[in-house]
Design a protein that fits this description.
By secondary structure, the chain is an alpha+beta fold. The protein is about 25% helix and about 25% strand. It has eight helices and 14 strands. Helix 4 runs parallel beside helix 6.
Length: about 260
């Protein structure tokens, strides 16, 4: 089974460029998780009749954030957003930008043997005004997925908006303390590992040069001056069945590229 995750940074633009159909034709994912769709279901017309579509679009602001799951296998159940008990447990509150749990950022799909959870994690903003919110989000999401994995193993994916280690970005020293590479955000990632999740790409691939996002400036993508901020994490109970974690840097259409795993 092939599972892919991709922050498309606007699904309508990716469809208009022809890149989504090209991607589907080439890779034929069994389950595809998308982040930052910036659309509602039906606003992006493309031909994929073999997929069942599940969308979670922002209720707070149209054309913003949003996630989707396209799957060839019908889930047993699908849950949008972080359940209220974990919102409260994580202390996730309203901030100056609104409530992050109203922004269509999370979808959990239950299958026979596992959950697939995809999320578009809020970024801390250039001035770090959303860093406190970000810490609340990380706690709520970790608690939520840790609870899910008590029932079935969890495969978690998405744009986590953090480079975990110095190997996960091309220029760690000048970016230390900036959004995506603060101590607080990196500690939030540590909490996933402590909760029993494995970063399956890093498990199999050491060193730097493996990036999933590139700035539009200074030909960053051509020079591979990027960040690894898109991940697949797996519960320990299923991690040994996760194979071939890959980054597909040749797939264009977004400032992010897809990341994939195979499930044996």
């Amino acid at each position: 089974m092939k599972l892919y995750s991709w922050n498309v940074n606007g699904i309508r633009a990716v469809v208009r460029k022809g890149e989504l159909q090209k991607f589907l034709d080439k890779h034929q994912p069994d389950i595809l998780c998308l982040q930052e769709t910036k659309a509602e279901q039906g606003q992006a017309a493309f031909d994929a009749p073999e997929y069942i579509e599940y969308w979670n679009s922002s209720k707070a602001k149209k054309g913003y954030s949003g996630t989707a799951i396209f799957t060839k296998i019908k889930p047993l159940a699908v849950i949008n957003d972080i359940p209220e008990e974990f919102v409260k447990a994580g202390g996730l509150t309203l901030d100056d930008y609104g409530h992050s749990n109203d922004e269509g950022r999370v979808i959990a799909a239950e299958f026979d043997d596992f959950y697939v959870v995809t999320a578009y994690t809020p970024n801390a903003k250039d001035d770090l005004t959303r860093l406190n919110l970000r810490q609340q989000w990380d706690k709520a999401m970790t608690l939520y997925c840790a609870d899910l994995q008590k029932k079935k193993p969890v495969l978690y994916c998405g744009d986590m908006n953090v480079a975990h280690t110095e190997d996960d970005l091309a220029n760690p020293k000048p970016n230390r303390g900036k959004k995506g590479f603060t101590d607080e955000e990196r500690a939030g990632f540590d909490n996933w590992l402590e909760a029993g999740f494995s970063d399956v790409f890093r498990r199999d691939h050491a060193g730097n040069g493996h990036y999933t996002w590139w700035s539009h400036f200074a030909k960053s993508r051509e020079r591979n001056v990027g960040w690894r901020i898109d991940y697949w994490l797996a519960s320990k109970a299923i991690a040994d069945k996760v194979e071939s974690p890959k980054i597909h840097a040749d797939q264009m259409g977004s400032d992010h590229c897809p990341v994939s795993i195979e499930l044996s």
